[in-house]
Amino acid sequence: GPPSPAHRPRVCSRVRSRNSALSLLDPWPYLPSFPPSRRGRYWRCCSRGAPGSVMGSRASTLLRDEELEEIKKETGCEFGQITRLYSRFTSLDKGENGTLSREDFQRIPELAINPLGDRIINAFFPEGEDQVNFRGFMRTLAHFRPIEDNEKSKDVNGPEPLNSRSNKLHFAFRLYDLDKDDKISRDELLQVLRMMVGVNISDEQLGSIADRTIQEADQDGDSAISFTEFVKVLEKVDVEQKMSIRFLH
Q1: Distance from C-alpha of 234 to C-alpha of 203, rounded to nearest angstrom
Q2: Torsional sign, CA 78, 53, 246, 75
Q3: pLDDT computed for residue 198 by the predictor
Q4: Residue 205's closest CA among 18, 28, 26, 27?
Q5: Alpha carbon separation from 209 to 19, 157, 170, 202 (Å, rounded)
Q6: pLDDT value of residue 18
Q7: Fewest CB atoms less than 10 Å from the CB: which of 9, 133, 198, 244?
Q8: What's the pLDDT score for residue 37?
Q9: Which residues of the chain fall below pLDDT 50?
């Protein structure tokens, strides 16, 4: 559903208070949080008889050892973290078919009221697919895993982790680049602005903000923002902190 009116003024003032149009390209104005729900702290360790403890045991038995190892290698998550996230995955899987649909994600209240909720949800699904399995679910969430200090010194010749700064920025860029042409056009930027502020700012004002943002970011004169230009704009932004979810404790 659309954001409630209570959310609108805060979003609107946030945009109007910016000193620079470039700051509108903040890669994560609305982090897709999965905070505790009425059912309990479902991203945290289920222990001491918590409601999810049985589900955690079930997850351990349903995930084969080879699957756990592959997901661990691909995402950097530990086995215990994977099984806890599998518990949450199965609780969202209302059809009990081992995959999630967009409707399953839309039942998460925090995404339902998020102005960018639909785009966040779409990021979980491969091109042309309308279902995502657990491994795909984990690959997407892995982008938001915090970068620990001991990870920064790992073998630089190994594969780039999904939660690297570059991959976090690629993920954010794709939220704007809907047509996947590797550029953020004025129209695409306007769509995001309208989602964020609703009817609180006129189309003329939104157009002015979009024009100024592109003017300041565009270095090659094509009236759009490439990924390289996007990265340049955000070079001083703490992307690692802004695009991390502490859900794996």
Answers
A1: 26
A2: positive
A3: 73
A4: 18
A5: 11, 41, 23, 11
A6: 46
A7: 9
A8: 39
A9: 1-19, 32-61, 150, 153, 248-249
User: Rounded to an integer, what distance in angstroms lies between the CA atom of residue 124 and that of residue 136?
Assistant: 7
Exposed (0-12), middle (13-18) or buried (19+): which is 146, by Cβ within 10 Å?
A: middle
Q: How far apart are CA 144 and CA 171, in angstroms?
A: 10
Burial 170-200 (b: 16+ CB within 10 A, else e): bbbbbbbbeeeeebbbeebbbbbbebbbbee
Q: Angle CA(232)–CA(234)–CA(238) in degrees, nearest 5?
A: 140
Structure tokens given for 159: 């594969």
The pLDDT score that the predictor gives to residue 56 is 41
Residue 234, CA distances (Å) to 163, 178, 194, 217 in order:
17, 20, 22, 10
Phi then psi for residue 237, to 5 deg, are -90, 135
DSSP 81-125: HHHHHHHHHHHH-TT-SSEE-HHHHHTSHHHHT-TTHHHHHHTTS
